Amino acid sequence: MENGGVLDEQITASSELNDNSAAYQGRLNVNESVQGSTVKSGAWVAGTSDQSQWLQVDLYDKESLIRRVATQGRNQDDSWGLANSQWVERYNLQYSNDGRDFEYYHEQGKSKAKEFTGNTDENSIVSHDLIPPIRGRYIRFRPTAWHQHISMRVELYGCCDSLSVIVCEGQTMEIRCESISKIRVLWANYGRLNPETCTHPSIRTINCRASASLNNVRKVCQDKTACTLKSNSGSFGGDPCVGTYKYLLVGYKCDD
């Protein structure tokens, strides 16, 4: 999630305090940011604090295998003082393959849903290994206890059958499936979400996404045996962040 492999539209929530506290702000290590007169929260902030709230990640692949999770509280500028000291202290995990019927995660040999220990401050990372791992497309974090207000940032660690490639600005790359397999594009982002990927001296923002990324890559590659990815603004309807060196990140599978 932190590296941009999970797109904004894959992260949803039961509620949001406002547009500046949206579900997609719930990525690990997202920081509060000022964009003009707008302050973007350093976390997903729920519209209300009760035990019906959730933060969900759609991994697009029901064979995704999650072996570890991590959480943080709400990042904020020091000038706020204690005003927005918010984090989730405990939570459950749920998973689903269809987005409708969810099961609670249980530890092996136990019948009661596992309650995970969350955070005790805004920025420390608390991780948990999942034994057994979760296999599923949709993962939900369900807060059960919190400090001041439900706010959190999360990360998922694991593996699946999908492949991912990074194409730095101005470069091209061919992706290919073997035999009669066809490419199925799962996600894509042209822009910049991480300062460490395709490093370059010209980086003005790390919150840059071309909205047409997924559709444009699917037009080029979907259901083909091979295709060529081009990382340039012309391929994505214009420059999503002028002055920033960008890259194209694509996740795909080879389906028979």
TrEMBL record:
It comes from the Eukaryota. Signal peptide: none annotated. Residues 1-159 form the F5/8 type C domain. GO terms for molecular function: carbohydrate binding. Residues 167-255 form the SUEL-type lectin domain. Pfam families: F5_F8_type_C, SUEL_Lectin. InterPro entries: FA58C, Galactose-bd-like_sf, Lectin_gal-bd_dom, Lectin_gal-bd_sf. This is Discoidin.
